[in-house]
Design a protein that fits this description.
With 101 residues, the protein is α+β, with helices and mostly antiparallel strands. The protein has 4 helices and 4 strands, in the order βαββαααβ. It is globular and about 35 Å long.
Length: 101
C-alpha cells in the first residue's frame, strides 16, 4: 500500500475550476485500487505552527495498493481529458509519497 499526501495551492479566483477538475478526477481513483481517504480544506486557525510554507487550499490523502496502480491513475485517459482544468486552477501542488510501516 502506498499513500499520497498532496498539498494543493490554488490560483486566486480559480476555486470553481479546481472543483470541476476534482469532480472528474476523484471518482476515477477507485478504478485503480485507490481510495481518497481524506480531503481537507483547512482554515487558518486549524494550524498550530507554520514554518516557511504557505497554508494550502486543500490537503488530500489518497491510498493505492501499488505504485503501478498510482501510475495507471495518472495516465487515465478520462482524467487526462480534464487536466487543462487542473493546469488552469492550481498554482502549485506538493506531492508526498509514503508507505505504511
Amino acid at each position: 500500500m502506498i499513500y499520497i499526501t498532496q498539498l494543493i495551492y490554488i490560483k486566486e479566483g480559480q476555486e470553481d475550476i479546481f472543483n470541476e477538475f476534482e469532480s472528474h478526477a476523484i471518482p476515477i481513483i477507485s478504478n485503480y485500487n485507490g481510495e481518497l481517504t481524506l480531503r481537507i480544506r483547512p482554515e487558518a486557525d486549524a494550524f498550530i505552527e507554520i514554518g516557511s510554507i504557505e497554508r494550502p487550499y486543500e490537503i488530500h490523502l489518497v491510498s493505492f495498493k501499488t505504485e503501478a496502480d498510482f501510475s495507471a491513475f495518472l495516465k487515465d485517459e478520462e482524467r487526462n481529458k480534464f487536466l487543462h482544468l487542473k493546469e488552469q486552477s492550481i498554482k502549485v501542488s506538493i506531492l508526498i509519497k509514503g508507505e505504511e510501516l
